[in-house]
Amino acid sequence: MNFELPEHLEQLRNMLRRFVDKEMPRGAVAQWDADNHFPRDVFDKLAALGVMGMTVPEEYGGSGRDIIGTMMVIEELSRRSMAVAIPYIMAACYAGMNLAECGSGLQKQEYLPRVASGELIFAYGWTEPDVGGDLASVRTVARREGDEIVISGSKRFCSGAEFSDYIYTLVCSDPAGERYRNLSLVMIPTGSPGISIQRMASMGIKGVPTTDVSFDNVRVPVGLVMGGEDGWNQGWQMLTGAGLDVEKLEVAAMAVGIAAAALDDAAQYALERTQFGKAIGAFQSVQHKLADMRTHLEAARLMLYRAAWLSDRHQSCALETSMAKLFATEAGKTIALEAQTILGAYGYVRDFDIERYVRDSLLMPIIGGSSAIQRNNIAKLAGYAVKG
Ligand SMILES: Cc1cc2nc3c(=O)[nH]c(=O)nc-3n(C[C@H](O)[C@H](O)[C@H](O)COP(=O)(O)OP(=O)(O)OC[C@H]3O[C@@H](n4cnc5c(N)ncnc54)[C@H](O)[C@@H]3O)c2cc1C
Fold it and tell me: Domains in the chain, please, with CATH?
C-alpha cells in the first residue's frame, strides 16, 4: 500500500492551484455566479494547460486515460467555481470519456483530438420531465430513415446545453423492443433545426444553466449514433459501462472540492471572528465542528481516490464508486452546512462564498444517481439485497 502522491500529480495540483488563483479570483467567480455566466475565456485557458486530454488516448492527441488526475482537476476547480469545473467535466468526461470508451474508430479519429484541444463540449440529455432515476424508460424517440436518424421528444435538466456543441442524448430507438435493448445514445448538434432550448430557474451551479430541451423531428446523420451503426440499440450497455463508474466519481470529486473550500473558509473565519472577547475558534463547539468536517473530508477524499485508482487499473469498481459517490456527496452537503453554521449570519448572505457552496453542495447527492440509488447499488453489489 502506498498513499504517497506521485510527483506528476503533485505538479498537476500545483499547476491547477496557480491557475485558479490567477484566472479564477474570488471576485470574478462571485460575479459569474450572480450573472449565471459561463466564462468561456477561462475554459479556453484551462484547455491550453492540456488537461482536457486526460481522458483521451495518446494516439488521438491526449495524454492517456488518467482517472486519478481527472478527479484532481475536478476537485481543484470545484474548490473555486462550478462555472469552470462542470464545463471541464462536460468536455473531458461527457465527451472525452464516452467517445474513448464507446465511440467507433471513425468517431474517435474525428472527435477525440477536438476534445483534447478544448474545442468540444457535450451536454447530457438523459433526464426527461417524467423520467428521473428510471432512465431506461425514456420516451424521446429516434427512428431510422435511410442514412438519417429522426428524433422527437423532450429532455429536462439538460445543463449547459446553451454553450455545448452536442447534446449526448439518450433515446428510445425501438419502442416495441425489449427493455434495456431498445435504447441508443445520439450526439445531436445543438444548432440542428428543430431543437429549442429553454432555461430553467435553479438554485445552484450558476454558469451552467440547466434547461428544457425539445426535439421536433430533428434529423442527424446515422454517423452521430455513439458507436456508429453498431451502437444502435446499445445505449444502455454504453451508459452502464465503465463510464458510469467514472461519472459517479466526477460528482464525488465536485463534492470534495466544494467541501474543502467550505472547510478552509470556515476555519479562517473562526480565527478572525471575535465574540465575547475571543476568537470563535476558541470555543470548543466550533473546534469540534471543524474537526468533524476535516475528518469527513479526509474519508471522502480517500474513498474517491481509491475508487479512481481501481478505475485506472480497469478493475471492477461499481461498489467502490457507489460508496464513494454516496459518502462524498452526503459528507460534502454536511460540511457545507456546518461551515454555514460557523459563519452564522454571514453564512447566509452573498458577501461570503459559503452560501454558494451550500447551494452547489445540495445538488451533489441528487445528480449522477441519487443517494437512494447508490444505496440500492451498494446493497445489491455487496449481496445484502435479499429478495423478500
Ligand atoms: C441542477 C440540475 C442539473 C442537472 N443536470 C442534468 C444534466 O445535465 N443531464 C441530465 O440528464 N440530467 C440532469 N439532472 C437531472 C438529475 O440527474 C436527476 O435529478 C436525477 O436523474 C434524478 O431524477 P429526479 O430528481 O427526477 O428523481 P426521481 O428519480 O424522480 O426520484 C425522486 C426521489 O425518489 C427516490 N427514488 C427514485 N427511485 C428510487 C428507487 N428505485 N429506490 C429508492 N429511492 C428512489 C430518489 O432518490 C429521490 O429522492 C440535473 C438535475 C438538476 C437539479
Answer: 7-120 (1.10.540.10), 124-233 (2.40.110.10), 241-381 (1.20.140.10)
Q: What is the DSSP string of 55-79?
A: GS-GGGTS----HHHHHHHHHHHHT
Q: By alpha-carbon position, which residue is closest to atom 36 of ligand 1?
A: 372
Residues with CB under 6 A from ligand 1: 123-124, 126-127, 132-133, 157-159, 202, 205, 210, 363, 366-367, 370, 372-373, 376
Report how far apart, in Å, the C-alpha atoms of 299 and of each of 218, 220, 306, 323, 381 are: 46, 46, 11, 11, 21
Please give the angle made by the CA atoms of 41, 43 and 49, to the nearest 5 degrees: 110
Report which secondary-structure segment, H or E, holds 376.
Answer: helix 371-381
* Rounded distance from Cα 374 to ligand 1 centre (Å): 12
Q: What is the pLDDT of residues 314-371, one digit of tens each?
A: 999 999 999 999 999 999 999 999 999 999 999 999 999 999 999 999 999 999 999 9
Residue with cell 467517445: 99
Q: Give the position of cell 475558534.
A: 281
What's the predicted TM-score (pTM) here?
0.97
